[in-house]
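Much of our argument rests on the idea that a fold can be written as discrete symbols. Part of our work consisted of pairing the sequence of a single chain with a tokenised description of its backbone. The amino acid sequence and the backbone structure tokens for this protein are reproduced below.
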Amino acid sequence: MRQKYKIIPNISREDLYSESKSLGLNMKKAEIRKIVTAERSQLSEQACADREAAILSYLRPLLSEGSIIASFKAIPHRKEISLDSLEGSFAFPRVTSEVAGTMEMVYSDQFANSRWGIPEPIGGHVVEPTEFDVVLIPLLAFDVKGHRVGYGKGFYDRYLAACRPDCLKIGISFFDSLASIDDVEAHDIALDMAICPTQVYDFR
């Protein structure tokens, strides 16, 4: 059973996203997805850069040398955080079936945009889900129990279900936690940790 979350504090810093506090209401994923997508689209380049720097400062100490890590490439038109400045060897997602909502993780240093504008690896070595020690997950939002809101296609739920139970699932979000997500389903895979610009949440 998951315990009540705890917060790992960092140095205090100005709250750059007070407007997102209004999202601390119980809402369904579709509503949250619409609101947070709109809020994120309105962030300035400087605001995105500030939040990205803060998130990376929390994330780097959590990635142990020698760990097998799945990361992700930012989608520029969605103003996602870029993890490209992280040092190390990372696998990246590539869709294997849009109909089935499945993907694989691949070691590669060559990428091309999919028809959705998502950078995906070309060629490379496919890593089995059971090999990963850590999976970094892009988020639109999350709540205080570690439930996630992504883009609604279920790719990560299907992939995480095949990972080892001890694989550390870390969500990355530009915004702080919501109070609750109303329509969590049985197949939804919760996070172990989430990182936002002001703090790290540990749900374990």
Observations:
- The CA atoms of residues 146 and 191 lie 5 Å apart.
